[in-house]
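Chapter review: from sequence to fold.
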Amino acid sequence: MFFAAFTLCAAALSAQTEAPARPVAIRADKVWLGDGRVLENATVLLRNGRIEDVGAKVDVPAGVETIEHKGTLTAGLIALHGATGEASATRDDARAALPEGKVALAFDPDHYEFEDARIAGVTTLVITPAIEGVCAGSSAVVKSAGHRMLSDEAQLSLVFTAAGLSFNREPTSLGGAVAMLDQMFAKPVGAVERAAQGKLPCLFEATTRQDVQRVLDFAKRHSLSGAIHGVGLAGEMADEIKESKLAVIVPVLSIGEERRNLRAVGALAKAGIVFGFGLDSPWNHPAQMRLGVAMCVREGLDPQTAWTALTSNAARIAGVADRVGRIDRGLDADIVLWSGDPLDLGSQVTAVYVDGARVFGAKP
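The token string follows.
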């Protein structure tokens, strides 16, 4: 009854519709499309919550509000790992495996932490289960405004780090954790079966090189797809990770980060591995994600590669590339206006639109 009631609640949130935002055309000095291309002096037309058109010569219908923006327009940022709005609502220390658990049930769209995300230009977030046991359930993909949930089952969380162990219940060792997971996948049911069939990506939680090796062996053994999160030096295992075809979610990078960690991100890019960035909110401010990426660029990461990691590649990892992450016709109108180059930390967010509705920034 508990899960049924909350599932209905989550479904209602996902299906909730509001009056569509008024159409608007935004002309910007630069439009970063999110696929590596940049348009100069281009217009983006937003209508009915979607991007209706984009280009240098967009025909703006009569009566549609037009905004002249002296700066850069991009898709909204996507944070791939964190607990925004639900940090205290997803723990279950009593059970080592809860594969049918859904973090979507704890989604509080009115939580004040989502406002912080919007101010930082983050329009989509992946809310992830607590790192405990061996399988803490499934992540959810939500918008930072509009009570919107894009997916209530985005990835199945599998824990390969010592942080998931406990002294008073099984498993008590990393070997025991892998053995328990092997048993789950030997006779998979529900979410585990969907993961085994390739219908549900996995979120592999790891911390060390040894954790990553266990992930790679396990993923190969069970033919699993998904992304590895939590290893700052994952780029130093780029060859092995590339062979696995898994993506990487880079953990949040802080001021004073070792250059070795920043250069490891560049190694992921050089190897052609799809990667994005986590936030680990609410313990980190949403602005820290862009700060970390800017530090990687300073260490040699190509700026447009960095930007795709924050937008289009992040959307691929989250399984919502058909909805967000790029400035393209038909995608959700999740737009951020910047005063200058988004990877220049002197640039500021001047306005944010989610589903075509302005959710941050004063009217120009």
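Two observations follow directly from the output. The two ends are 49 Å apart (CA to CA). Residues 2-15 form the longest helix (14 residues).
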